[in-house]
Amino acid sequence: MISIITAVHNQLAMNQLFFEKLKQYTHHPFELIVIDNASTDGSADYFASVGAAVIRNPLNYSYPVSQNQGIALAKYDWLVFINNDIIVSPDWGRILLESMQANHLEVATVCGIEQLENAQVTKKTKRRWQLIKNLVSLFGISYRTLVLMHKLMYGNWERYCARRNQLFKHQIKEGFVGNTVVMHRDAIEKIGLWDERIQGADFDLYMRSKTRALTVGDIRPVHICLDVFVHHYIRLTVKGGYPPFADKDKLIPFQNKWKPQELEVLQELNK
Questions:
Q1: Per-residue DSSP letters for 60-109?
Q2: Which pTM was predicted?
Q3: Model confidence pLDDT, tens digit, residues 121-130
Q4: 2-269: which CATH topology?
Q5: What is the Cα–Cα distance from 85 to 80, expressed in whole angstroms?
């Protein structure tokens, strides 16, 4: 049983596609917890209609605040923090948990356009997605154009994902792709909840897990499971903008928390 936590603000078409694929491709029984940050397009009602537990915030809150709200409501030990602008792959949850258990990971992410097995493949994939996104988005952002982009990018989605699973079964590399983070509650006990001062929460999560691994040694830093790929639309649906975060006054720059010498580990990930 897994608890899936997703924060949204509007993007109804994307939310509908996200949930349809989540339901279609998730192997384990799951609860979906949606933190709706003052949507005005019916997104909160949509998620409620399909059985999600919906937290209706009257204002727009930052990512870490939203995720901690979800944790407080979650029932299960495996927690999935997932963006609403993604399409999951067939059996993604089962494959991901098996890969994590095989590699003794308590916190991990999937791979995707942002980060693949090497820099060359990542660059090629990013270039292809940018071309498709720019072309199709000329016709507007709707459910149909979102589906078309995905089809043009991958062709047969099930076959594409199955091939990656076969090629990279249980292979991992240190790093993170922040759109889909899986964490066991044991990891939260060791490294804490999301830091509500840091909007770049995936970077901060990696840094905290890496620091704990180096100083205490009871957890491995965040790794990417290369056998699970999800498609991320990568800021495609944010052109309309978001209202300011209600908690913006307490947010601090990432660099205010971590010293330059500590951040050198992030530079190593990109080599």
A1: ---HHHHHHHHHHH--SSEEEEE-SSEEPPTTHHHHHHHHHHHTT-SEEE
A2: 0.95
A3: 999 999 999 9
A4: Spore Coat Polysaccharide Biosynthesis Protein SpsA; Chain A (3.90.550)
A5: 15
